[in-house]
Design brief:
The chain is an alpha/beta fold. The protein has one domain: Rossmann fold (3-Layer(aba) Sandwich), CATH 3.40.50. The chain is built from five helices and five strands, in the order H-H-E-E-E-H-E-H-E-H. InterPro entries: Bact_response_regulator, CheY-like_superfamily, Sig_transdc_resp-reg_receiver.
Amino acid sequence: MDDNSGLVRTMEKVLVKAGYEVIQATGFRDALDKATFQKFEILLTDFDMPEGNGIELIKRYREKNKNQKIVALIMSAYSEVELELIKNPGLADGFLLKPFLVRELLDLLKRYH
């Protein structure tokens, strides 16, 4: 999930080619709507979005799906987000600093899934 539709399309192509099923969302509200009706094994989200942030999205998804194991990964261009995640374990399972290489994304997904 990212509010940059070009990045979303590129990541979808990469992930589908790697064998993942992808449901894309292009904003916080769109992601919340989709999370209401669907279950995910992996939630890959941008941190900074209009209307909300990735941590809030992960918290809300986990609250609605308390009995489900989900891998939550956050992307951000801000390294301070990674520090926040380190200080607060459990907010997310992994972090990608933008810009990142496709290989970094795939390696992170393989580590957790």
